[in-house]
Amino acid sequence: MTNRFKVTDYDIIYLSYDEPNAEKNYADLCSKVPWAKRIHGVEGSDAAHKACAEISETDRFITVDGDNIIDPKFIQQVIDFDEHEDLQHSVISWAGYNVVNGLMYGNGGLKCWPKKFVLNMRTHENADPNNAHAQVDFCWDINYIQMNSCFSYVYNNHTAQQAWRAGFREGVKMALDRGVRVTKEEFANLHWKNLHRLYIWLTVGSDAKNGLWAIYGAREGLYKTMATEWDYINVRDFEYLNNYWNEQVKIEEENLLDAVKKLGSKLLNELDVPIPVDPFSEEQSKFFKTVYQNPGRMANQFIDIER
User: Fold this and answer.
1) Same domain flag for 196 and 120
2) How far, in whole angstroms, is CA 224 from its chain's centroid?
3) Same-domain pairing of 115 and 23
4) In the listed set 100, 131, 156, which residue is the last one of a domain according to the structure?
5) Per-residue pLDDT tens for 165-215?
6) Three-state DSSP class for 226?
7) Are 118 and 54 in contact (CB under 8 A)?
8) What's the DSSP call for residue 294?
9) What is the number of domains present in the chain?
10) pLDDT tens for residues 245-295?
11) What SS3 class is residue 41?
12) Cβ atoms within 10 A of the Cβ of 235, count?
């Protein structure tokens, strides 16, 4: 016996906040999934996902983030999971392809959530203050079934601010261990996949629109997390980040590369982060994305996939 999962059995909900390309991406989704629902502008990640659960008419629902363009092949997906796989208490997570740096992992990817779990979870702004692991992420309190298939493209670089914020958030979160700040010594021993992805965020993307802003954001987020007393929990607050951009990130475009290099030097000298001070050039970034192969996420937990 198997657990058969069909994408078309579940509500698909477009979850946007303030992404500058949200309306364009939503129109694209509706052209592929005319029955898609939408939640927009809800403050807080926990509250936003609960809002999705509340409008879902199925016992699971699929979220499409506001910076995503989905592959229409996703709609036809049918997966036969092993009969022992506990889908009732698991999030199914597909990889998303980041157009800035070529990374393909769970960040920004499509996810299928158990409605009951989401309604009862306490994460991000709703987290128990004593649960350090739930302050800035979902993934430590529920089982994730990590699919290797990629069915969406993450366009988080429509504006300089959007690219900076995307990089900043990953620069912070990739430096944490199960959502908690670590020491400099512990940082060097984090999971190799997370470290490698972080190094790529810190280095690759100059060829993409606003890619240098994403690199700057990642370097700034990592530096503030590992080399200052800044409260990293602020990374969960999009309004905080928007205000930070407006009030603190005072860099002219012509000075951006120098600012990126300055942060690179600090990361190398103060934290021993093994990256070049100079980010990859446009040509180097293009070459990297041509030859780089993203690592698999985990062993298959299913029997077969129908496409």
Assistant:
1) no
2) 19
3) yes
4) 156
5) 999 999 999 999 988 999 999 999 999 999 999 999 999 999 999 999 999
6) helix
7) no
8) P
9) 2
10) 999 999 999 999 999 999 999 999 999 999 999 999 999 999 999 999 999
11) coil
12) 25
Q: Is residue 249 part of a domain?
A: yes
- Residues 240 and 252: their CA atoms lie apart, in Å, by 21
- 188 and 169 share a domain? yes
What the block records as the tokens of 36 is 């898609």
183 located within any domain: yes
> What share of residues in the chain are helix, strand, coil (percent, to 5)?
45, 20, 35
CA 165 vs CA 60, 125, 149, 237: distances in Å: 29, 18, 26, 11
Does residue 177 sit in helix, strand or coil? strand
Q: Is residue 102 part of a domain?
A: yes
pTM: 0.94
Q: What is the CATH number of the domain that holds 107?
A: 3.90.550.10
In sequence order, which residues have a C-beta less than 8 Å from that of residue 86 and are 6 or more positions away?
Answer: 143
What is the 8-class DSSP label of residue 229?
-
Domain hosting 21: range is 2-156
